[in-house]
Write a structure and sequence with these properties.
Largest sheet: 6 strands, antiparallel
Order of helices and strands: HEEEEHHEEEEEEHHHE
Radius of gyration: 23 Å
Number of strands: 11
Strand content: 25-35%
Shape: globular
Helix content: 25-40%
């Protein structure tokens, strides 16, 4: 017959088990931190570098609230006469949305290299997400723009994404380039009756492409910045050099916002010299 343990022995065993559990938890946390660090580096590697071309200049700023996020963008010049700008925001935060954003990046890259039209990119991306990733139950807002550098036109198609803002020196807001289609991933056919539009550009024009982390900023009274507030900040920065404008706009958003951001923020500023 086993001898009963004393209270001291039970306390010692409990202490040993607690210490072991604490060490195991610390090991798991360290491994998770390493995994997130790798994921963050991969996600950052997908972001485009600023473009300084004689025919178009594009600056890019990305501010995630976590190590990894669901925002993604691309700026590519696959031919001598065109520039593609694409931007997406996967609903949610963390590793899952970040992985989907990475997959979106790969799909869109192939579409751009094939020089598909913006509406064709939206269509193909939506079909891929619905057919291959429907079980993930995640949706994507998406915006694709193709700038013809010779004709100075911007062809665009959006899927539930915030409207890009077309600004002009001495004029202010020329137009809001509003998304025409449903979010990516909702249903197999996301295109609406007029799924694509064309906007004429002039030298000196700038276009702001962004995710809703900027416009959903709220002040101390709970008021949204909104597209009107972002337009105001953008117009105030039209005299700022192009590669300083994005940082200045984000500073203006931060000045308006009460407290830290609660969503990832991505901003691209494109200029026709």
């Amino acid at each position: 017959m086993a001898r009963p343990c004393s209270i001291d022995q039970v306390s010692a065993q409990s202490g040993d088990e607690a210490a072991r559990a604490k060490r195991e938890l610390a090991d798991v946390q360290r491994e998770l931190a390493r995994t997130l660090a790798v994921a963050a580096r991969v996600h950052q590697s997908l972001l485009p570098k600023p473009v300084d071309d004689p025919r178009i200049r594009v600056d890019v700023k990305y501010l995630p609230i976590d190590a990894v996020g669901g925002d993604y963008c691309q700026v590519r010049l696959p031919g001598s006469d065109v520039c593609y700008i694409t931007l997406c925001d996967v609903c949610g935060h963390g590793i899952g949305p970040s992985l989907l954003a990475t997959r979106v990046s790969s799909e869109v890259r192939h579409c751009i290299l094939d020089q598909l039209s913006p509406v064709e990119i939206v269509r193909d991306l939506n079909e891929f997400v619905v057919r291959e990733l429907s079980e993930a139950d995640m949706f994507v807002t998406f915006f694709a723009a193709r700038v013809d550098l010779i004709r100075k036109t911007l062809t665009y198609s959006g899927a539930g994404h915030p409207a890009a803002l077309h600004l002009r020196p001495g004029v202010g807001l020329v137009a809001e380039l509003t998304s025409q289609n449903l979010l990516v991933g909702v249903q197999l056919d996301c295109l609406r009756a007029n799924p694509e539009d064309v906007q004429a550009l002039r030298s000196g024009d700038r276009v702001l492409f962004y995710t809703d982390g900027l416009t959903e900023a709220t002040d101390s009274q709970g008021r949204l910045l909104g597209s009107e507030g972002l337009t105001r900040i953008g117009c105030e920065m039209m005299d700022v050099p192009i590669f300083e404008m994005a940082s200045k706009i984000l500073g203006g958003v931060a000045d308006f916002r009460d407290g830290p951001p609660n969503d990832d923020m991505t901003l691209l500023v494109a200029e026709i010299p």
